[in-house]
Amino acid sequence: PDIAVQIAAGEVIERPVSVVKELVENAIDAGASRIIVEIKGGGIEQLRVVDDGAGILSEEVLLAFQRHATSKVESADMLNAIPTLGFRGEALPSIAAVSQMAINTRPAATDAGFNAEFAWGKLISEGAHGCPPGTTIEVSDLFGNLPARRRFLKSATAESGRIHELVTRYSLAYPEVSFHLKVGDRVVLNTQGDGRRANAALAVYGAEVSESLLEIQEEDPETGYRVEGLAGDPSLHRANRTYMTFFVNRRWIQNRMLTFALEEAYHGLLPEKRYPLAALNLVVPYEDVDVNSHPAKREVRFRQDGKVYAALQRGVRAALVAYSP
Ligand code: ADP
Ligand code: MG
Protein backbone atom coordinates (compact mmCIF):
# COMPACT_ATOMS: atom_id res chain seq x y z
CA PRO A 1 0.00 0.00 0.00
CA ASP A 2 1.14 3.51 -0.62
CA ILE A 3 2.91 5.49 2.03
CA ALA A 4 0.14 8.10 2.44
CA VAL A 5 -2.26 5.38 3.50
CA GLN A 6 0.27 4.01 5.98
CA ILE A 7 0.79 7.44 7.52
CA ALA A 8 -2.93 8.12 7.68
CA ALA A 9 -3.43 4.69 9.21
CA GLY A 10 -1.04 5.56 12.01
CA GLU A 11 -2.97 8.73 12.79
CA VAL A 12 -6.46 7.29 12.70
CA ILE A 13 -5.68 3.81 14.02
CA GLU A 14 -3.59 3.82 17.13
CA ARG A 15 -4.81 0.64 18.80
CA PRO A 16 -7.67 -1.88 18.67
CA VAL A 17 -10.11 0.51 20.31
CA SER A 18 -9.56 2.99 17.45
CA VAL A 19 -10.73 0.31 15.01
CA VAL A 20 -13.81 -0.43 17.10
CA LYS A 21 -14.61 3.27 17.36
CA GLU A 22 -14.47 3.79 13.59
CA LEU A 23 -16.53 0.67 12.86
CA VAL A 24 -19.15 1.47 15.50
CA GLU A 25 -19.46 5.03 14.20
CA ASN A 26 -19.91 3.71 10.67
CA ALA A 27 -22.64 1.37 11.92
CA ILE A 28 -24.39 4.27 13.67
CA ASP A 29 -24.09 6.41 10.53
CA ALA A 30 -25.65 3.51 8.60
CA GLY A 31 -28.70 3.68 10.88
CA ALA A 32 -28.09 0.38 12.67
CA SER A 33 -30.50 -0.56 15.44
CA ARG A 34 -28.28 -3.38 16.69
CA ILE A 35 -24.49 -3.42 16.86
CA ILE A 36 -22.55 -6.49 17.94
CA VAL A 37 -18.88 -6.20 18.83
CA GLU A 38 -16.84 -9.35 19.43
CA ILE A 39 -13.17 -9.33 20.33
CA LYS A 40 -10.48 -11.91 20.91
CA GLY A 41 -7.03 -11.31 22.33
CA GLY A 42 -7.74 -7.67 23.15
CA GLY A 43 -8.97 -7.08 19.62
CA ILE A 44 -5.42 -7.56 18.33
CA GLU A 45 -5.95 -11.18 17.41
CA GLN A 46 -9.43 -10.57 16.06
CA LEU A 47 -12.35 -8.22 16.27
CA ARG A 48 -15.69 -8.24 14.56
CA VAL A 49 -18.41 -5.62 14.27
CA VAL A 50 -21.82 -6.69 12.99
CA ASP A 51 -24.59 -4.22 12.24
CA ASP A 52 -28.07 -4.31 10.77
CA GLY A 53 -27.71 -0.94 9.07
CA ALA A 54 -28.08 0.18 5.47
CA GLY A 55 -25.27 -1.97 4.03
CA ILE A 56 -23.15 -1.01 1.03
CA LEU A 57 -24.11 -1.61 -2.60
CA SER A 58 -21.90 -4.26 -4.25
CA GLU A 59 -20.51 -1.79 -6.77
CA GLU A 60 -19.51 0.61 -4.02
CA VAL A 61 -17.73 -1.68 -1.59
CA LEU A 62 -14.27 -1.45 -3.12
CA LEU A 63 -14.64 2.30 -3.47
CA ALA A 64 -15.23 2.50 0.28
CA PHE A 65 -11.72 1.10 0.76
CA GLN A 66 -10.10 3.81 -1.30
CA ARG A 67 -8.83 6.75 0.63
CA HIS A 68 -11.09 9.82 0.53
CA ALA A 69 -13.10 8.25 -2.28
CA THR A 70 -16.24 7.95 -0.22
CA SER A 71 -16.14 10.74 2.26
CA LYS A 72 -19.60 11.51 3.54
CA VAL A 73 -18.63 15.16 3.21
CA GLU A 74 -19.23 16.37 -0.31
CA SER A 75 -17.64 19.77 -0.18
CA ALA A 76 -15.27 21.73 1.98
CA ASP A 77 -18.15 23.93 3.14
CA MET A 78 -19.80 20.94 4.69
CA LEU A 79 -16.90 20.45 7.06
CA ASN A 80 -18.51 23.07 9.21
CA ALA A 81 -21.87 21.32 9.26
CA ILE A 82 -21.24 17.65 9.75
CA PRO A 83 -24.32 15.58 10.54
CA THR A 84 -22.62 12.17 10.37
CA LEU A 85 -19.89 10.82 12.61
CA GLY A 86 -17.60 9.90 9.74
CA PHE A 87 -16.53 12.40 7.18
CA ARG A 88 -13.03 11.77 5.95
CA GLY A 89 -13.38 8.49 4.11
CA GLU A 90 -10.21 7.38 5.82
CA ALA A 91 -11.14 4.71 8.33
CA LEU A 92 -11.72 1.65 6.16
CA PRO A 93 -8.57 2.05 4.03
CA SER A 94 -6.54 2.84 7.15
CA ILE A 95 -7.72 -0.26 8.99
CA ALA A 96 -7.21 -2.40 5.90
CA ALA A 97 -3.63 -1.15 5.58
CA VAL A 98 -2.62 -2.55 8.97
CA SER A 99 -4.59 -5.79 9.24
CA GLN A 100 -6.22 -8.69 7.53
CA MET A 101 -9.73 -7.51 6.95
CA ALA A 102 -12.95 -8.98 5.59
CA ILE A 103 -16.26 -7.29 4.85
CA ASN A 104 -19.64 -8.84 4.16
CA THR A 105 -22.34 -6.39 3.35
CA ARG A 106 -25.81 -6.22 1.88
CA PRO A 107 -28.44 -3.50 1.64
CA ALA A 108 -31.80 -4.96 2.68
CA ALA A 109 -33.35 -4.21 -0.74
CA THR A 110 -30.79 -6.21 -2.74
CA ASP A 111 -30.77 -9.99 -3.14
CA ALA A 112 -27.08 -10.68 -3.03
CA GLY A 113 -24.47 -9.40 -0.67
CA PHE A 114 -20.82 -8.77 -1.34
CA ASN A 115 -17.64 -10.04 0.24
CA ALA A 116 -14.16 -8.59 0.00
CA GLU A 117 -10.96 -9.57 1.77
CA PHE A 118 -7.79 -7.60 2.20
CA ALA A 119 -4.36 -8.40 3.57
CA TRP A 120 -2.18 -5.46 4.58
CA GLY A 121 -4.07 -3.14 2.27
CA LYS A 122 -4.09 -5.44 -0.73
CA LEU A 123 -7.34 -6.82 -2.12
CA ILE A 124 -7.07 -10.61 -2.12
CA SER A 125 -10.61 -11.67 -3.01
CA GLU A 126 -13.99 -10.19 -3.87
CA GLY A 127 -17.34 -11.31 -5.12
CA ALA A 128 -21.04 -11.86 -4.57
CA HIS A 129 -21.75 -13.50 -1.28
CA GLY A 130 -24.97 -14.31 0.53
CA CYS A 131 -25.37 -12.59 3.87
CA PRO A 132 -28.06 -11.02 6.02
CA PRO A 133 -28.87 -7.31 5.52
CA GLY A 134 -26.33 -5.04 7.12
CA THR A 135 -22.57 -5.13 7.40
CA THR A 136 -20.09 -7.42 9.11
CA ILE A 137 -16.46 -6.42 9.31
CA GLU A 138 -13.79 -8.69 10.67
CA VAL A 139 -10.27 -7.48 11.44
CA SER A 140 -7.50 -9.93 12.35
CA ASP A 141 -3.84 -9.70 13.27
CA LEU A 142 -3.92 -5.93 13.78
CA PHE A 143 -0.51 -4.31 13.12
CA GLY A 144 0.85 -7.72 12.09
CA ASN A 145 2.81 -5.84 9.42
CA LEU A 146 4.03 -3.15 11.82
CA PRO A 147 5.86 -4.90 14.68
CA ALA A 148 6.91 -1.62 16.31
CA ARG A 149 3.27 -0.57 16.53
CA ARG A 150 2.27 -3.93 17.85
CA ARG A 151 4.86 -3.76 20.64
CA PHE A 152 3.51 -0.40 21.71
CA LEU A 153 0.13 -1.95 22.59
CA LYS A 154 -0.72 -2.93 26.13
CA SER A 155 -1.81 -6.37 27.30
CA ALA A 156 -4.88 -7.99 25.78
CA THR A 157 -6.72 -7.32 29.05
CA ALA A 158 -5.89 -3.62 28.94
CA GLU A 159 -6.86 -3.28 25.27
CA SER A 160 -10.13 -5.14 25.97
CA GLY A 161 -10.79 -2.75 28.82
CA ARG A 162 -10.52 0.24 26.51
CA ILE A 163 -12.92 -1.33 24.05
CA HIS A 164 -15.38 -2.12 26.84
CA GLU A 165 -15.20 1.49 27.97
CA LEU A 166 -15.78 2.80 24.46
CA VAL A 167 -18.79 0.59 23.75
CA THR A 168 -20.21 1.49 27.15
CA ARG A 169 -20.00 5.19 26.37
CA TYR A 170 -21.64 4.79 22.98
CA SER A 171 -24.42 2.68 24.46
CA LEU A 172 -25.24 5.55 26.83
CA ALA A 173 -25.23 8.13 24.05
CA TYR A 174 -27.31 5.97 21.67
CA PRO A 175 -29.98 4.38 23.86
CA GLU A 176 -32.05 3.61 20.74
CA VAL A 177 -29.32 1.25 19.54
CA SER A 178 -28.90 -2.19 21.10
CA PHE A 179 -25.20 -2.80 21.82
CA HIS A 180 -23.81 -6.24 22.44
CA LEU A 181 -20.18 -6.73 23.46
CA LYS A 182 -18.48 -10.07 23.73
CA VAL A 183 -14.93 -10.38 25.05
CA GLY A 184 -13.66 -13.87 24.30
CA ASP A 185 -16.58 -16.10 25.25
CA ARG A 186 -18.03 -13.67 27.75
CA VAL A 187 -20.89 -11.27 27.07
CA VAL A 188 -19.89 -8.16 29.00
CA LEU A 189 -22.52 -5.72 27.80
CA ASN A 190 -25.98 -6.03 26.35
CA THR A 191 -28.27 -3.03 26.07
CA GLN A 192 -31.89 -3.19 24.98
CA GLY A 193 -31.88 -0.33 22.54
CA ASP A 194 -35.39 0.70 23.54
CA GLY A 195 -34.50 4.39 23.46
CA ARG A 196 -34.52 4.82 27.23
CA ARG A 197 -31.20 6.07 28.55
CA ALA A 198 -32.06 4.83 32.04
CA ASN A 199 -32.28 1.28 30.69
CA ALA A 200 -28.92 1.63 28.96
CA ALA A 201 -27.45 2.89 32.25
CA LEU A 202 -28.98 -0.06 34.07
CA ALA A 203 -27.27 -2.47 31.67
CA VAL A 204 -23.97 -0.63 31.99
CA TYR A 205 -23.78 0.17 35.69
CA GLY A 206 -26.22 -2.18 37.37
CA ALA A 207 -29.22 -1.34 39.54
CA GLU A 208 -27.46 0.29 42.47
CA VAL A 209 -25.62 2.91 40.47
CA SER A 210 -28.36 3.55 37.97
CA GLU A 211 -30.80 4.37 40.79
CA SER A 212 -28.57 7.30 41.75
CA LEU A 213 -28.47 8.74 38.24
CA LEU A 214 -30.47 11.86 37.49
CA GLU A 215 -31.97 12.37 34.05
CA ILE A 216 -30.89 15.67 32.53
CA GLN A 217 -32.78 17.45 29.77
CA GLU A 218 -32.32 21.21 29.64
CA GLU A 219 -32.29 23.87 27.00
CA ASP A 220 -30.51 27.13 27.56
CA PRO A 221 -33.11 29.73 26.55
CA GLU A 222 -30.47 32.28 25.63
CA THR A 223 -28.50 30.15 23.20
CA GLY A 224 -30.76 27.22 22.40
CA TYR A 225 -27.89 24.90 23.34
CA ARG A 226 -29.22 21.74 24.94
CA VAL A 227 -27.74 19.32 27.40
CA GLU A 228 -29.17 15.84 27.87
CA GLY A 229 -28.07 12.67 29.55
CA LEU A 230 -27.39 11.28 32.98
CA ALA A 231 -25.44 12.53 35.97
CA GLY A 232 -24.98 11.00 39.39
CA ASP A 233 -26.67 12.51 42.40
CA PRO A 234 -24.10 13.70 44.95
CA SER A 235 -24.12 10.35 46.75
CA LEU A 236 -22.54 8.85 43.65
CA HIS A 237 -18.93 9.80 43.12
CA ARG A 238 -15.72 8.33 41.88
CA ALA A 239 -12.04 8.59 42.68
CA ASN A 240 -11.07 9.65 39.16
CA ARG A 241 -12.29 11.56 36.16
CA THR A 242 -12.79 8.65 33.78
CA TYR A 243 -16.49 8.40 34.61
CA MET A 244 -17.27 11.75 33.02
CA THR A 245 -18.27 11.20 29.41
CA PHE A 246 -19.08 13.97 26.99
CA PHE A 247 -20.66 13.89 23.59
CA VAL A 248 -21.20 16.84 21.33
CA ASN A 249 -23.99 16.22 18.85
CA ARG A 250 -23.59 12.58 19.90
CA ARG A 251 -19.93 12.45 18.92
CA TRP A 252 -17.74 11.25 21.81
CA ILE A 253 -15.18 13.92 22.57
CA GLN A 254 -12.68 14.90 25.19
CA ASN A 255 -12.50 18.47 26.30
CA ARG A 256 -10.92 19.99 29.40
CA MET A 257 -13.36 22.85 29.52
CA LEU A 258 -16.38 20.54 29.72
CA THR A 259 -14.75 18.49 32.47
CA PHE A 260 -14.13 21.66 34.40
CA ALA A 261 -17.68 22.94 33.87
CA LEU A 262 -19.09 19.69 35.19
CA GLU A 263 -16.85 19.67 38.24
CA GLU A 264 -17.86 23.26 38.91
CA ALA A 265 -21.53 22.33 38.75
CA TYR A 266 -20.91 19.89 41.61
CA HIS A 267 -18.89 22.36 43.59
CA GLY A 268 -19.50 21.92 47.31
CA LEU A 269 -21.58 18.78 46.81
CA LEU A 270 -18.87 16.14 46.59
CA PRO A 271 -16.13 15.22 49.07
CA GLU A 272 -12.56 16.34 48.37
CA LYS A 273 -10.85 14.62 45.43
CA ARG A 274 -14.04 12.92 44.32
CA TYR A 275 -15.55 13.28 40.86
CA PRO A 276 -19.03 12.88 39.40
CA LEU A 277 -20.22 10.06 37.20
CA ALA A 278 -21.98 11.49 34.17
CA ALA A 279 -22.72 10.82 30.53
CA LEU A 280 -23.83 14.02 28.84
CA ASN A 281 -24.57 15.03 25.31
CA LEU A 282 -24.49 18.65 24.23
CA VAL A 283 -26.69 19.58 21.33
CA VAL A 284 -25.09 22.52 19.61
CA PRO A 285 -25.63 23.95 16.10
CA TYR A 286 -23.18 22.20 13.77
CA GLU A 287 -21.75 25.48 12.60
CA ASP A 288 -20.66 26.29 16.17
CA VAL A 289 -18.42 23.22 16.40
CA ASP A 290 -15.21 22.39 14.58
CA VAL A 291 -14.58 18.65 14.61
CA ASN A 292 -11.86 18.79 12.03
CA SER A 293 -8.91 19.58 14.26
CA HIS A 294 -7.85 16.03 15.13
CA PRO A 295 -7.41 12.93 12.92
CA ALA A 296 -9.22 10.65 15.33
CA LYS A 297 -11.90 13.34 15.75
CA ARG A 298 -11.67 13.10 19.52
CA GLU A 299 -11.19 16.79 20.14
CA VAL A 300 -13.54 19.51 19.06
CA ARG A 301 -13.31 23.26 19.13
CA PHE A 302 -16.27 25.44 19.91
CA ARG A 303 -16.87 28.76 18.30
CA GLN A 304 -17.83 30.13 21.71
CA ASP A 305 -16.61 28.17 24.71
CA GLY A 306 -18.59 30.37 27.09
CA LYS A 307 -21.96 29.37 25.65
CA VAL A 308 -21.14 25.70 25.96
CA TYR A 309 -19.84 26.09 29.47
CA ALA A 310 -22.99 27.93 30.53
CA ALA A 311 -25.35 25.42 28.92
CA LEU A 312 -23.63 22.48 30.58
CA GLN A 313 -23.58 24.06 34.00
CA ARG A 314 -27.16 25.16 33.72
CA GLY A 315 -28.36 21.71 32.74
CA VAL A 316 -26.50 19.92 35.50
CA ARG A 317 -27.39 22.47 38.18
CA ALA A 318 -31.07 22.22 37.27
CA ALA A 319 -30.90 18.51 38.03
CA LEU A 320 -28.91 19.05 41.20
CA VAL A 321 -31.02 21.86 42.59
CA ALA A 322 -32.65 19.59 45.15
CA TYR A 323 -29.24 18.77 46.55
CA SER A 324 -27.77 22.25 46.73
CA PRO A 325 -26.49 23.18 50.15
P1 ADP B 1 -16.35 7.88 6.44
O1 ADP B 1 -17.11 7.27 7.58
O2 ADP B 1 -15.47 8.98 6.88
O3 ADP B 1 -17.23 8.23 5.27
P2 ADP B 1 -15.10 5.29 6.27
O4 ADP B 1 -13.78 4.87 5.70
O5 ADP B 1 -15.31 5.09 7.72
O6 ADP B 1 -15.31 6.79 5.88
O7 ADP B 1 -16.24 4.56 5.47
C1 ADP B 1 -16.29 4.69 4.06
C2 ADP B 1 -17.71 4.55 3.54
O8 ADP B 1 -18.12 3.20 3.57
C3 ADP B 1 -18.74 5.31 4.32
O9 ADP B 1 -18.87 6.64 3.85
C4 ADP B 1 -20.01 4.51 4.06
O10 ADP B 1 -20.59 4.93 2.84
C5 ADP B 1 -19.50 3.12 3.87
N1 ADP B 1 -19.62 2.31 5.12
C6 ADP B 1 -18.63 2.03 5.98
N2 ADP B 1 -19.07 1.25 6.98
C7 ADP B 1 -20.38 1.04 6.75
C8 ADP B 1 -21.42 0.30 7.43
N3 ADP B 1 -21.18 -0.36 8.57
N4 ADP B 1 -22.66 0.30 6.89
C9 ADP B 1 -22.91 0.97 5.72
N5 ADP B 1 -21.98 1.68 5.04
C10 ADP B 1 -20.73 1.71 5.54
MG1 MG C 1 -16.31 6.29 9.17
From TrEMBL:
Keywords assigned by UniProt, alphabetized: DNA damage, DNA repair
Name of the featured protein: DNA mismatch repair protein MutL
Gene Ontology CC terms: mismatch repair complex
Annotated family: Belongs to the DNA mismatch repair MutL/HexB family.
Coiled coil (residue ranges): none
Domain DNA mismatch repair protein S5: from-to ranges: 201-321
UniProt record, GO biological process: mismatch repair
Residues of the full protein shown: 8 to 332 of 589
GO MF term (any one): mismatched DNA binding
